[in-house]
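Protein modeling request. Please complete all fields; requests missing the sequence field cannot be processed.
Requester role: graduate student
Desired output: 3D structure, token encoding
Chains: 1
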Amino acid sequence: MTMRRPLIAGNWKMHKTPQETEGFIRGFLPRVKGVDSVDVLIIPPYTSLDRAGRLIEGTSLLLGAQDLCSEPEGAFTGAISAKMLVACGCSHVLVGHSERRELFGDDDQIVSRKLKAALDAGLMPILCVGETLSEHDRVEEKVTGQLRDDLAGIDKEGLEKVTIAYEPIWAIGTGKTATPEVAQETIGMIRSWIAQHYDDAAARGMRILYGGSVKPANAASLLAQRDIDGALVGGASLDDEKFAAIVDAAL
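Delivered output (251 residues):
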């Protein structure tokens, strides 16, 4: 059986100035000192990436970005390229987060191009998939459709660098959480889809996270599920003590 290394990722969304980011990192690093069996990733806003990259240099803490442009450079006012993220010290980038899809109009074709741009630059994308409350009764159709379109043209070698995050949109920032059993069922379905469209080895190696109102109180029960390899944490990742408690739950 393939042992997948857990990943706990904190998506800060539009929170924290560079100064607040520095305060968080200085408070958080001592809390996770010695943690060597879990990958821990912080995903600050763009304006904090360079400072965060400098502060975590030489530590085990990983840095990611919340989005990227699919183009390598050019006249795209307000956009950030993969090369810029790498230069700030990022190893990871979110692609297809529900808020980018729902609020900013990123469809699956845009997500697919961003995914390829991330891979071309050597970044490890975290591909977010999930359904709204009205789509919950056809979750398999929605999520497998996203996987099919978003991963189009990605071969097995590229897939090895991709992490998938299942985030039921109805559970993001609402306080509602998919039960561990429901989360396991959907994430197990995602792993089966990978096995069918790539192979069993790819499915066994695929790291799949759960995201949606993950907190210290529910993290352990979610992470105990067979196919859940970590968490994409929102609000609780803004507090160094709460985020460290979620990391502890993955040990």
